[in-house]
Amino acid sequence: MTKRNVGFMVLIVFLLALVLVISCNDEETEPSGNVTNGNGDVEEEVVITIGNLTDQTGVAAQAIAMIDIALDDIVEYYNDNNLIPGVRLKVVEYDTQFDSAKALPGYLKLTSDGADFLWTPVTLAVPVLKPRLDKDKFVAFTATANMEKEDLQGGYIFSMGITPEYEAYTLLKWIAENDEDFPAGRPAKVGAAAWDDGYNNLLFAAAEDYVDAHPDLYEWDQTFLTEMGFNWTVQAEALKDCDYVFMAVPPHIFIRDFRAAGGTAKLLGTDPALAFTREIGNSGLWDEIDGALFIRSSRWYNETGEIINLTNQLLDEKHSESEAAAFREQGCTYISIKNLYIMLDIVRKAVEEVGAEAFKSNPSEQLYNAAISWEFEYEGIPDFNSFDETKRIAQNYYAVYVADGSKQDIFRAHEDWLPQVDSPE
Hints:
alpha/beta; eight-stranded mixed sheet
């Protein structure tokens, strides 16, 4: 495996990554084979099988373990509550070992095991699979695609997560309009440092595009994209005079080096950084990250709302008190419940439109048709997530969070959801 592939691990750490050691469950989620209808009669049910193209033994296994747990938890929740009437969900798994060369064999194995569609948190598998899935007209959902939106348009891969370009535009727009520390009378100086992992390349390029489009508000200092390493002293010294700095991941190492160099900038981040909140605490760096701003696409554990309430409910009901606390302390990966929930909402919509038997006769066609006309209403916002004939990235709204060093947590910086900014202009 090359250094670049190892660098992709950070991307998984994105909606994804965590360093909590959890053993993966190798057993499939087995259906019972029948369901009780409203009259109390037992009827034969249709089994819909999710093919989980995952990583159980590769470099991202510790991160993805919690996403696999979240998938098992929400599938069990759907089955126990009969949320798709007449259907029982099942999961089959394939271990890619975080090797993109195993993506295609994994797809073939999962389909031979009866998978009706794919789910994958292994983002480096997506570019490999896309040509084959489009040719076969086989639907896959991914946590995040990490591809240019134009390359995804109209295809059979549907990304449930964020878009780094839109994160950058939306965050910088919000900062200029709302941050009380935004410099007065001059443009704010912005810089960035991270591993050269595919995700941050897009994030930083978009941030620089936004800065270039708004010279009255911002000026770009420097971008550092490096091979995987754990020493940021050179980059920290170079960026120390900035007003805002996109932090590298793992963030605690960068924060330590940046503050030691005398850097006083307000740090900026996304979910990859929030996968390391335990490490920030263990390193005694909450005071150093106080005031940092993060752009996110879902609510945090300390909030209330339809999906975060379910996330906390599943944590408390299906895990011990100490496990649930550890999941929350670690950060954002179990919050992938949101992506999985909206994926299953598309399955529900497809079954509701054609019936369980018709769905099972051609699941990819039915899922595709349901997805391209799907809109998810959330907290009174009709188009919170959506796809259409060409759009393959679901997220349409974001929120900004601020780190509170004294409380060692992050909190919403504003009340309303922010419409996605999809252009630097």
